[in-house]
Each structure stands twice: as structure tokens, then as C-alpha cells.
Specification:
The chain has 118 residues and is mainly α. It is built from 5 helices and 2 strands, in the order αβαααβα.
């Protein structure tokens, strides 16, 4: 249930960011949910491989190369999902940074509910 709620919150963040950022377009709510699922799957499987293979670049840049990896994940989601478009690398970079911030904030609300029960 918590995973489903996280996907819905990510879809909400995708819709909000598509309305805020120029260069990011989403067709509707269903596309946003599909984008949230695809981004979650890409983060689980592809991101870990990218981090492993680019570990030297990540270490040299003190972790800043992870922003590039996140932008690549967004660009891959753009290619995989119809109804979601990102105009270029910079738009994907800003989108990924803001999406991470939004997701951290929204997911912290979920963890706050868990702390009230303990």
C-alpha cells in the first residue's frame, strides 16, 4: 500500500513540475502515473548499473555526477513513455533535481505518519 501511495505522490510531483518547468510536458494523469512507475523501475534497475559503471567519475566530482545520472534516467523515461516529453538535457536536469526535492518532502510526510503510531 505504501508503494502505491509513493507512486501516486510521485505522479503528483510530475504533474506539478510539468506545469512549472518549461520544456517538460505531460499529457494527463494516466501518463503521470505511468511516468512515476517507469522512473521507479529505472531507478531500481538502470540507475544502480549507471552508478556502478560511472563510480570513478562520481568520486572525482564528489558525487555531483549523480545529478547527470538522474537526468539520464529522466531522458530514458521520456523515450519510454508516450505522453511525456522533456526538451533537452538541462530541462531533464532541473526536472530531476526538483523531483528529488518534491519526493523527499512528500515521502517525509508518509514517514511522519509512521512515527505517530510508534
Amino acid at each position: 500500500m505504501k508503494t502505491f501511495l509513493k507512486i501516486l505522490l510521485t505522479a503528483l510531483a510530475v504533474i506539478l513540475l510539468a506545469n512549472i518547468l518549461p520544456g517538460v510536458v505531460i499529457d494527463g494523469y494516466i501518463s503521470a502515473i505511468i511516468v512515476a512507475i517507469v522512473i521507479s523501475l529505472l531507478n531500481m534497475f538502470v540507475r544502480s548499473l549507471l552508478v556502478f559503471f560511472t563510480l570513478p567519475a562520481t568520486l572525482v566530482t564528489f558525487g555531483l555526477f549523480l545529478f547527470v545520472i538522474n537526468a539520464i534516467i529522466i531522458l530514458l523515461a521520456d523515450k519510454l513513455v508516450d505522453g511525456f516529453a522533456v526538451s533537452g538535457f538541462l530541462a531533464a536536469l532541473f526536472f530531476s533535481i526538483l523531483l528529488s526535492i518534491f519526493r523527499s518532502f512528500l515521502f517525509s510526510l508518509l514517514d511522519e505518519d509512521r512515527m505517530n503510531y510508534e
